[in-house]
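Review box. Two proteins, two foldings.
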Amino acid sequence: MLLYGQDAGSAIEVRLNADEFFAGQELDIDILIRHDALSLRRNRDMPNCILEGQNSAVQLLQSSSIPEQDGLHLRSRYRFTQTGTCTLVPVLQWKRMRIELKPLHLTVHEPPLSEQTVFLWKLYTSDGLPVAEETVAEQGQPYLLCLTAAFYVPGYEAQYRGYLRRVAASAENTGAALLAAPAGSAGGISTAASTGSAEHTPPVVPASSSGKTSLAGAAALPLPAGILRIDCPAAENAAVEPLDAAQLPAAIIEAEISRTGSGQSPILAAFRWIPLSIGMQALPQAAIFLDSGAKVVSQLRNLRVIPWRDALSEDDMEKGMERAAHVNGAGQLPHAAFTEKLPEQPPNGSALSVQEEIGSAHRIASLRHRELTAVFPFAARYERKKLETALGIVQPLPLYPAIYGILAAVFTVLLLSGVVWLKFRNKKGGMIVALILALCCTGIAAGLFNRTMQPQAVCIALSNAASVRRIPEAAGSIVYRLALGESVWIVRQTALWCYVKTAGGITGWVPQDTLAVCGTAL
């Protein structure tokens, strides 16, 4: 144990298992009060140990008081729920006495970079303004996609911010050189700056401790040790162009340099993204290759794309098409998609109001339950799929009605009866075939009944409320946001929270009031 706060041999000692932790890690505190301590001799009741200060950063799991040969041990176990630096003050509380011990200054990092790290997209406008989760995108407009993740790699935070400061200083030097240029020479200076001339704009070299940069994507952004490269293939419904840090807006660079607090995520790769189609569109899925040989993909995120605004003039429309064509080269984007007369309301249900969408989510939960229990589930399935398409649910959970498992069990019984009949008729060949088929039907029936018995639920709240968290606490880190109408499996549940699993394999805790439970078929 790590001795912390008090000197060894004193009447009261505070021992910790470490002084640096990761989010979700457990903190063990052992406070030893020796038998000769005045506090024990003056008080007959057992003391309580409480933590004051930034106690919202920890969650108490268990505590105990154990008398031993060397004294009274007050053992407590906590779990960290926030990242950053925190100061905790252990306080020993008797009925008539209170002792405040030396404060504990602890550092809590994000979990280490691993295959379990969640990589998310952050969307910005071309000017560097963040785009909210519920905001819709406009067809043909350029946006910035930044791949982020919350993790801890020693020394990477200082390296990342130092690199962005050099990029910002380089941009300021370029601007100062342009202002100081004499008349008629601006073009030459601009060319020198764009080519990284040492006279005006010193080149910026990524200071990666691992000596690695992305081979595809933001090649100029330094990657932490542990990531080999990041790939982001272009999607069919959008144009995607990799960017380096020098191409990011100053607003994003300044925000990344000055960001403070816990739970912050650095930008690992940046792309310019232009949606080409209207309706619910999926953002690109980046592939992150780790040194361990593992491959991790970014979280799936859908965004509603609406037609180009009618208020734009013809000149603005032409300029927007030129910007879009510049991403992948002239003539490669279907410009007719931006100029043709588009329907006022996309056919995928984007015209629904919020109340209608929530009502559709409740209807989906009812239909899934009916489909599980109905003898003829085809009508319910057709209506359910229609509503899920209207809400833009890309990957709904598979549903296996109970009738399928019952039919498989009936076929199993019939085949076993056939095995017995063939045995009495002494037809060994037919008996073996029937036995194999019976075993196959048994496995299918068991699998169907297992899926049927696992309860399902449908998200009936907006994405800002239906957040999947690592722990069942409102302060827990968010790993995924459920879309309205998205279905999940319920693994277990408490009085207020449900531990769920999505169709994409993501697990976490969701508030129970944001789900409508479909139930089981049996």
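Next protein.
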Amino acid sequence: MAFKLAEKSLSVSIKNSLLTSVFLLLLILGGVSAMTKMRLTALQDTIEAVGRDRLPKLRALGEINLLVARVRSASYRIALTATPEQRADVERAFNARIATLDQRIAALKATLKDGSALKLIFEQFANKWTQYGKYQALILDPELAKDRLRYSEIVNVETEAHFQGVVDLINDGIKLANQEADAAIDEAIAESKFDSLILWAVNGVSVLIGLATLIFVIRDVSTPIHRITSSMELIAKGHLDADIPYADRSNELGLMARALTVFKKSLVENDRLNAATRTLSELSEWLQSAKSETELYDMISSVLGRLMPECKGSLFIYANSRDVLEVATEWNGKSHTASIHPEDCWSLRRGHAYVHGTSEIEFHCDHVHDGVNDNYCCIPIVAHGDTVGLLHLEYTFDRSETAEEAKARFADRARLGHACAEHLSIAIANMKLREGLRDQSVRDVLTGLNNRRYLLEMARRELLRAERHKTPLSVLTIDVDHFKSFNDNHGHDAGDAVLRHVGEILRTLFADDAVPCRFGGEEFVVLLPNTDMDEAVARAEALRGKIEALTIRYAEGHLPRVTISAGVASFPEAGGNFTELLRVADDALYRAKQNGRNRVEGPDHALPDADRIGDEAVAALATVRSVKSESKAA
């Protein structure tokens, strides 16, 4: 019973088990005392019964036996007395003994129970003694006593057997009485032994009750408390992965275990939040070190995906047009929405974070599809008073969580999302600011090409890569022919129009890994990684033909035909650094101008197979035009 009660109430089970044990032990002790008293009383009664019943009988039988012997000896004396006076005295004593013997026989016979073995023996003795009286008369005859020989035969032979029979019966009665007394005592002793066995059994039951109580205390009280205490010590030392037993019980131990489990979860959560805070601090430092927006968004998805594994998230960033937000990165699953309108999200419309699934009054955002869990939050990314994006988090339920635990964890993730949004807003704003400043510092405003500063940075990097990997690298220097006449004859706006169209063609033809730049004025430079001399000349010819075929509409008419001159130099033939390459390419450019402009020149005065390369460039240009025409027609 105590074992079953321990599953419900430990205190009640301990109280009941102790009270039951004490009650049973007191009951057993009382029973033992009572049985001992009863056994002692029974032994005393047995002894008294033996004293009251058997001992008087034994005494009476012994006296009768003694009187029988005295009567016989008195009969001898009567027969052997010589004088009448002496004979009279002996006869008086003899008769007195006979009377006493008869009284004792009658008294003893009256005390014996009918049908008992002792009474049967005593009746045989009485009959035997009556028969012996006949022979007693012979012994008393004084005349017969005179014949000594005959008298000796009567005494020792004829009457001896009869007298011995009387004595034997008396002795049998004495033995029987002794046997009955011994049997009564043996029976009392046997009962005492049986009672002793019962007492031993009762003592064994007492020991078993004590052992059962001890086992209960050790198994259901001491051991569980020790295990829970050990778990508490491990948790106090920081081992938050320690197992907490007995949480499934409904007694006090279960309450303690469940309370300790909740405490452990809070410690784990606090530890996780502290780790998240440290991670956010480290993340802020890393985000400030990102070199591009792509790298920044990759870092955000990687860290937030591990920081909130139970949340699927997306980061939306405003497009340059400010009319739509596009997915910049996502984690823990694909987003169902690639872009959203600012009016689709309640957080953007209301100007602050919107947490869905925790309030009485709430509405779904238009950008949230039907498969999204009701527990989600949208947090605007605000930097310097300007909204730059949106952080969207969707909480995924764990089946092992209760509704209350899921609600509390989701609220915690929402708070963590707010903290993340603050760090992200600063990092994104700084990155956009850096990108804007960098773009202004390395990009030419008129043509949209990179400027001279960017060219020098890329040239150093690509030269080191070419030298390390033993790959070629070429440089094109380009100058617009007669550019000054455009400015002088048509105005600077016309000159700017020419430069813009040339820059557009450069961006179109060198959209791969090539680096086209405006070097200054009407001069352009193109850096061609992994390109040898022949390929560089072909691409320069394609560019020259494309520009030659260019028609620029300006004001009410068209500007004159625009042509370029180009010089080509390649690494490592032309030199080992960019200054050498640029000098060789410039020399080739000057030769192209001296040779009539609208041409491409290499390091020496005559390029090998110049006609062939020119034909291939023209054919390539025609192919490009044909492909574009077909695409427009389609």
